[in-house]
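Ops channel
N.P.: pipeline sanity check, posting one input/output pair.
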């Protein structure tokens, strides 16, 4: 067991999730004020001693992405300068993850830049959920604990007892994730082949696999504008699928995602609370069901704090 005292802090990105994690850990959320000056500068004030402590900062870099990222970096820097023993950035949703490679000349690799910033700020470790590309772990020169979302999502579908199922990947890039889901549920896999014209715009081409007269679960890591997943659902329905369910770890839900999902062929959209849903900004859909990742992140934090294996959490 670690000899360092554990402390948990949060910025403004997802304080309800941090409260849930703190409740799971049996500790209070640390005292920290994150303020903004009139010109937009972010100021952080840590209200208690962290000297010699094992500090965990919960902060997804979701909308507003840049503000939340700067909050995280400044909080890490404040903890380092306050002599925290170890600092772990707990990032349920890692923004900029979709910019992880060059797809054309002169593209940035922004996911690597963000990794450099987090390391330079003073983080000793990162805990992150369901990266868009697993290779992003290699962008860091510090340890990364990568927690997949599929086990949690699959457990939900096991418990509600759907039959005659097939798991569908919404694109070729998501096949590994969909295969993991299919294996956990003991069902077949199908793939939607699509061509992306430009960012946030896609066109479904055809479906590889048998989905006729079957209940379908479409699984992805992120739903952003919901164009991909709703077009995919329509294609599946046109090819004879029965009830269609969709799930993802990160509900980015940029407008008009909610409207598209509400008017789609999808019966239910299962997501987690790595990103808080802001109905005022994002809209509302009666089809959304949210699972909490607080226990999973809390258990990962305990294992990191006590120097135990995190991967054991996902042994089937």
């Amino acid at each position: 067991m670690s000899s360092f005292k554990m402390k948990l802090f949060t910025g403004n990105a997802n304080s309800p999730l941090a409260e849930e994690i703190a409740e799971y850990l049996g500790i209070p959320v640390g005292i920290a004020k994150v303020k903004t000056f009139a010109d937009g500068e972010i100021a952080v004030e840590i209200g208690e001693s962290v000297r010699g402590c094992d500090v965990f900062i919960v902060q997804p870099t979701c909308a507003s992405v840049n503000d939340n990222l700067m909050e995280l970096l400044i909080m890490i820097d404040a903890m380092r300068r306050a002599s925290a023993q170890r600092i772990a950035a707990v990032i349920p949703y890692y923004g900029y993850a979709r910019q992880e490679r060059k797809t054309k000349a002169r593209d940035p690799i922004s996911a690597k830049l963000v990794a450099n910033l987090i390391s330079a700020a003073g983080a000793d470790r990162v805990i992150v959920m369901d990266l868009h590309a697993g290779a992003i772990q290699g962008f860091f020169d510090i340890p990364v604990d990568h927690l997949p979302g599929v086990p949690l999502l699959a457990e939900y579908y096991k418990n509600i007892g759907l039959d005659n199922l097939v798991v569908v990947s919404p694109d070729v890039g998501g096949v590994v994730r969909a295969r993991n889901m299919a294996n956990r549920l003991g069902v077949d896999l199908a793939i939607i082949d699509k061509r992306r014209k430009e960012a946030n715009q896609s066109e479904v081409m055809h479906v590889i696999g048998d989905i006729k007269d079957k209940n379908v679960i479409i699984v992805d890591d992120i739903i952003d504008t919901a164009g991909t997943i709703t077009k995919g659902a329509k294609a599946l329905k046109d090819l004879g699928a029965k009830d269609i369910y969709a799930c993802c770890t990160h509900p980015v839900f940029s407008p008009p995602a909610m409207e598209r999902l509400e008017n789609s062929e999808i019966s239910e959209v299962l997501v987690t609370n790595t990103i808080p849903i802001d109905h005022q900004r994002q809209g509302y859909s009666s089809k959304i069901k949210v699972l909490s990742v607080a226990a999973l992140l809390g258990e990962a934090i305990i294992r990191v704090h006590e120097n135990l294996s995190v991967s054991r959490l996902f042994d089937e």
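N.P.: looks fine end to end. Residues 150-291 form a domain with the Rossmann fold fold (CATH 3.40.50.2020).
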